[in-house]
């Protein structure tokens, strides 16, 4: 089982996250894995906004509604 990070390192991670720095940036500075930073971030700041992931929408929702309306009119 890996060792836990020191309280000083954990405090550094938390303060950097509160300054809206990326996990990759924090990991490079502290010499640890970005996955480790994300793990500690999930523990320390559970309400932190996460990247939703997945493919981004190419067509906006308003345009989709308009296209549906046009298709319904044609049928």
UniProtKB/TrEMBL annotation:
Q: Name one GO biological process term.
A: DNA-templated transcription initiation
One GO MF term: DNA binding
The record's InterPro entries line, in alphabetical order, gives: RNA_pol_sigma70_r4_t2 (IPR013249), WH-like_DNA-bd_sf (IPR036388)
| Every RNA polymerase sigma factor 70 region 4 type domain range | 4-43
Give the protein name, as stated in the record.
RNA polymerase sigma factor 70 region 4 type 2 domain-containing protein
* UniProt cross-references to Gene3D superfamilies, sorted A to Z: Winged helix-like DNA-binding domain superfamily/Winged helix DNA-binding domain
Q: Which domain of life is it from?
A: Eukaryota
């Amino acid at each position: 089982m890996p060792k836990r990070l020191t309280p000083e390192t954990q405090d550094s991670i938390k303060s950097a996250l509160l300054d809206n720095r990326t996990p990759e940036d924090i990991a490079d500075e502290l010499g640890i894995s970005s996955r480790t930073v994300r793990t500690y971030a999930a523990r320390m700041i559970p309400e932190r906004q996460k990247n939703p992931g997945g493919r981004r929408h190419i067509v906006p929702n308003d345009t989709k509604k308009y296209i549906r309306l046009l298709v319904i009119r044609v049928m």
